[in-house]
Amino acid sequence: MKTILNYLRPHTLALTWTMIVKFIASMLDLLIPFILAIILDEVVPQKDARLIYLWGGGMALCAVLSITFNVYANRLAAITSGKVTRSLRHDLFKKLGELSMSQFDRISLSSAVSRLTTDTYNINVFLNRTQRMGVRAPILLIGGLILTSILDLRLTLILFLTLPVISFIIYTVTKKSVPLYDRQQTILDKMVRVLQENIVGVRVIKALSKTNYEMERFDSVNQELSETSRKAGSVVALSNPLSSLTLNLGLSMVVLAGAFLVNRGLSRPGSIIAFLNYFTIISGAMMGITRIFIMSSKGIASAKRIEEVLIMENDQPVLEETERSDSPAHIAFENVSFSYNGIENNLEDISFSLQKGQTLGVIGATGSGKTTLASLLLRLYDVTSGSIKINGRDIREIPPETLSKNTGVAFQSDFIMAATIKENIAYFRDIDEEKIQKAARDAQAEDFILATKGQYDHEVEARGNNLSGGQKQRLLIARALAGQPDLLILDDASSALDYRTDANLRKALSQSYADTTKIIIAQRVSSIMGADLILVLDDGKVIGKGRHQELMKACPAYREIAVTQMDAMAEVEAEHEQ
Fold first, then answer.
1. What is the pTM assigned to this prediction?
2. Strand, helix or coil at 420?
3. Tens-place pLDDT, residues 356-402
4. How far is 507 from 501, CA to CA, in rounded Å?
5. CATH code of domain 2-309
6. Bridge partners, residue 9, by sequence
7. What is the mean pLDDT of the chain?
8. Which residues contact 288 (CB under 8 A, 6 or more apart)?
9. Which are the contacts of 396, defined by CB distance < 8 A and separation ≥ 6?
10. d(CA 416, CA 460)
11. CATH number at 415-484
């Protein structure tokens, strides 16, 4: 909660003013029953209409001012809580963007979404209601007890008997509800994940007729969330009836005791009526305090989840630059090993070097570590052992901005936003239209772009839903080329292209980007057979290393892949000729 409290400090003045206004409104509320007691016991017996109107007018004025001040304070509370939540949500979003991939993996995408939405909403409600009731309820409670003790100390003692019981109820409910609300938010993360998977994979789900299965999966997590919410709600639901029962029993005792005292001439009717009004005010204040504690259960649970992200320290700091190696290599992997879980290596003892402008081809079975290798080179993760160097400088010593500025990357299924083709290629970078068009031309995307209605201003739907798989990949490759990077990484980025388009792409890369070091991860041998160096990966280890012809002789796994694919290509060409 310490981190969350930091967001309240800039609004100390507004919070203080809200409390002052609430204090004035609460004191006006407390005056009304006191004036009523004076009217009934002191003014009415005098039978002076002028005095009755005067004191009655005072009660009405207090009521009007109380409503006015309460409405004004509630508006201030809403404004302040909105500003705090906006700042909190902004910083949380910023922090999520700064986390390393390993930290983000621990949080998960679904949890990040629910923390950014549901948890910040819970904080907003908590802050808003606390400002509205957090000052008013205690003042009404304490002030009510003071004024009732002035009216009749004996009846006030009855009220004091109810307070320990209600305090115990609130403490017990809060203690049991906080863990339940925490668990509820965790299950909500799972529900968001299932929903997200269904939305993203809706085409596959329909194609495989798995709608009913996905409905059952959603119903399962929905039932779990509903059950946990029911348990939390059941615990919280006990507070109001138990508190009301305690207060009503106290009220009954007050009525009986008051009737006895009036009958004995030890108290006056006006005082008893005022006391009953104060009892109602005190009851409402106690219920308000109960609701604050209930809301705090959700607020505390959400605050802990948000704070968990905000206090995360950078686990990928930029190290101080040491002496650069004398190696002329542009990219060098030196005995690199990496593990996602810290138990077994996903990459083990990878070593190679590339001169500027050279091309590295990476091929291997699914799960062999190809994408992991690219992720390490982008420093999405840090190596477990060994080192990666760019121009003789350890990648951990290069600022992220410098690294990303000099690197272009395209993954097989990457992010395409709802914007124009031009905006998707530029992607918020200061790139002139001529470079955008050249990148599209080299990526073999120009033909389909010019065929669209708006050409480069053609609107692309979210996730590129109005583009084919090959068109999306060419658009992503154009984005990677548009920044004219020193290092280009294509991670299975041409898998949806036909062989001719793929060949034209490789030709354009060779001619127009001769000084760019290229790392091409592919499933096709044809995409990498012209590379200066080819790595064959299997289960995170290099089982083949060299040029195409060398691997055809020395690496059985590579030769098998190449022969199988070439035979398939020959069959396709033969069928096409027929």
1. 0.72
2. strand
3. 989 999 998 888 888 889 889 988 888 989 889 988 888 888 888 88
4. 10
5. 1.20.1560.10
6. none
7. 82
8. 133, 136, 137, 140
9. 316, 318, 319, 379, 382, 387
10. 8
11. 3.40.50.300
